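4.2 Preliminary Data

To establish feasibility before requesting continued support, the project team ran the inverse folding procedure on a target of 154 residues. The structure was first converted into the token representation described in Section 3, and no sequence information of any kind was made available to the design step. The complete token record follows.
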């Protein structure tokens, strides 16, 4: 669905300029063909829930006017996913999750023999890890003051 830089191409995936949508009762949520993120009406909110030891990363959608949960999307990357850092080269074959540090953060890759996060990465600020990404692409928050959100911003 994306290239190595995370640019979505849903129109090509689904043919023409159409994009997928999810319907729950009378509520339909379409995905943006340019970002792959939901096109939300003002009364629908989304929240990104980091992975846990038992559940994958999720995006949950709620109708805020009725406080009704609409649906959740679990993000389960394919087994061939490669997690790569900003200085790694994309092999052009496997799907990738490219981790790019922003705003003074840094990315530290772990070895395959790391007992806590084999083959994964930590994202740090001031040398303190606040986010972990395992070798399967699941994202874990290590600092309770950090939040994740879905956005259409590039």
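Position-by-position output of the design step:
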């Amino acid at each position: 669905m994306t290239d190595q830089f995370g640019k979505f191409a849903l129109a090509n995936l689904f043919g023409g300029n159409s994009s997928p949508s999810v319907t729950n009762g009378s509520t339909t949520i379409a995905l943006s063909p340019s970002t792959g993120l939901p096109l939300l009406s003002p009364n629908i909110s989304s929240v990104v829930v980091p992975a846990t030891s038992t559940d994958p990363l999720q995006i949950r959608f709620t109708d805020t006017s009725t406080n009704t949960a609409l649906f959740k999307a679990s993000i389960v990357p394919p087994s061939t996913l490669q997690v790569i850092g900003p200085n790694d080269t994309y092999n052009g074959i496997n799907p990738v999750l490219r981790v790019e540090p922003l705003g003074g953060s840094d990315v530290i890759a772990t070895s395959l023999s790391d007992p806590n996060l084999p083959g994964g990465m930590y994202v740090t600020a001031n040398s303190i890890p606040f986010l972990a990404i395992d070798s399967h692409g699941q994202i874990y928050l290590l600092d309770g003051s950090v939040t994740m959100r879905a956005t259409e911003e590039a």
